[in-house]
# Entry
Amino acid sequence: MSDGSTPYQPPQTTPEARSPDPVRQAPVKQPPTNQANTKQALALQLSQITKAYREGGNRLEILKGANLSINEGELVALVAPSGAGKSTLLHIAGLLENPDSGSVIIGDKAAEKLDDAARTLLRREHIGFVYQFHHLLPEFTALENIVIPQLINGLPRSEAEERARQLLTYMRLPNRFDHRPAELSGGERQRVAIARAVANAPRLLLADEPTGNLDPKTSGLVFDALSTLVRSSGLAALVVTHNMELAARMDRRVTLVDGKVRDF
Ligand code: ADP
# Structure
C-alpha cells in the first residue's frame, strides 16, 4: 500500500478514558536471548519458556526453554512444522495460556507477577489477535465489529466509531462500513479482523496463519495491509505462516526446533 496515503497513526487512548493501570511496575532487565536489537523498545520478551501437556500417560514437552524478543515496529515470521508448538507459543505470548515456567514480558510488565484480572487487562489493552478464521461477529457490521472492543475498553462510542472508520479506510475498505461479514470477501473479512485486532492500539499483534485460508493474490494483499500497519504504527507483530514468500518479506524469521526458538 505504498500510494503515498497518510501513515496510520494508532489511536491514542486518553488517560481519562483508560481504566487505572494496576499492572504498572518497574522495568524488567533484558533476558539473555540471542535475538532482537535491544537498543529499541521491546514489545515482547519470552524467556526460558517451558510447556508440557499430558496426553494419556505421556508427558509431551512442547517448549523447552524458548526465548524470543520482539522490538516495537518489528514484524517477525514464525515458521515451523505442524505440531512444533507454534500455537502454544502464540497463546503463551498472548497471555491466553500460562507457561509451566519462564517469563512473559509485554512492554515492561512481567505477566507472571500479575493476578488474573491484571493479566486480562494487560491482554485487552496491549495485545491484538488475528486468526486464520476471521471470528468476526456475524450479526454486526464491519464497523461495529471494530467499535465493540473499544467500547469494552472504555472508549466513548463517538470516538470508537471515528477510529473504526479511520482503520477501515486505512485498510482500504472505505465502502464496507455497513457490510456484515457474510457480505464481505475472504480477504476483506481478514482486513476487518486485522483492523479489529489493532482497534485498541496494542503494542503487540499475534497472528496465527492470518492468510492461511486465502488464495495467493488475496493473501499478498492482506499481508501488505498487515505489514504497512505494523511498520507505520510501531506495533510489534509475530505472524505464524507456512508461506515462505510472506516470511521472506518480514524483518526476521524464527522457527521452533526441539522446543526452542531459532533464527533462520
Ligand atoms: P503447532 O501450532 O505448531 O501445530 P501446537 O502448539 O498446536 O503446534 O501443538 C504442539 C503439540 O502440543 C501438538 O502435538 C499438540 O497435539 C499438543 N497440544 C497442544 N495443545 C494441547 C493440549 N491442550 N493438550 C494436549 N496436547 C496439546
